[in-house]
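User: Show me a protein chain along with its predicted structure.
Assistant: Here is one chain, sequence first, then structure tokens.
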Amino acid sequence: MKILVANLGSTSLKWRLFDFAVGQERLLHKGGFERVADYAQAIEDCLAELKRSGAIQHESELAAVGFKTIMARGINGCVRLDQQVLQAMEFYNQIAPAHNPPYVTGIRLFARRMPDTPLIGLFETAFYQWAPEAAMRYAVPQAWHELGVRRWGFHGASHKFIAERSAELLGREDVALRVRQLYVDGGRSPVRQPELRVISCHLGGSSSVTGILNGVAIGNSLGMSPQSGLPQNNRVGDLDAFALPFLMRTARLTLDEAERVLCQESGLKALSGGANDIRDIQAQAAQGDPRAQLALDTLVHQARHWIGAFHLELNGADALVFTAGIGENQTRIRQAICAQLEQLGIALDSAANDRVRAQESVISTPASRVKVMVIPTNEELVVAREAKRLLENSKN
């Protein structure tokens, strides 16, 4: 069974092709295009590249195309992407303006190009379906809540991968099995004592922190939209709700102008004075730029804030995991986040931390009560696995 996973951005198309032959799980091909102006042509070029590489002879070999979809009104989990689901995604276009519109457009183009191939989406909100209600509610009227004004949590595929892989590395196959079965039984698979407590830090162009108890999420730093939580590369992060009406009245901003600034001109970009790539910000900070240093300090401060929150909710932690582009590669960010946390049982091995980039490793000292780990994420594999499960269950 070959499953193509397409990652759609506003101007990009990236893909991975997985083969689930009997008893195996292989990545056959990966690639991508940036600065895409014509999505229909990009899809044609993607299929041509797969054929040219020998990964497929014809697109009919694809059992499905999977997508890391963001959110949809009244729909969660792993589902077939029909018109009803796409319309439910469009309902939240204004909440996820950088994500939902390109996904809806791309999915419709894939459907037009490959009408007989199942298109399957795993929603980023799916991993938080079983989080405690109190952790996911805002203190708003019930009617607002029913419209979707609540904490949803995102980066679900990434944090789910970390939940499973960290359990495997910590010798807890019982918890890893629960994570694999999560979208089947809702976290009811039995696990042995003691409890496994993991704090997962997905730090990249978009960042979030999740607390995970026995393989099930208890909450996420992202809230109603991907614009919340930690400062993102150019999206605002957490902001007091009354800041927006204040600015609209005082600075005479229109709603569209305010939305553009919050989504495109805020976050690390606003704090640093223009740069939103962490490498550029670090280079500027090293040259003495105070605004660049402020951007780094704010990111670290917010990461520590959420790590501390989940450390309290979990009553401690067995592992603190760093993943995604910044988490996997930026040693100085990891060092700053873990500084002076010995009272929480977190002791970083500076030499080990300096050596590790984008590879599985333990970077804490042997005496650290909490294992600090780097685990490269694999969101596409999670999407492909769940798409495979959905296809198999539909045949039964």
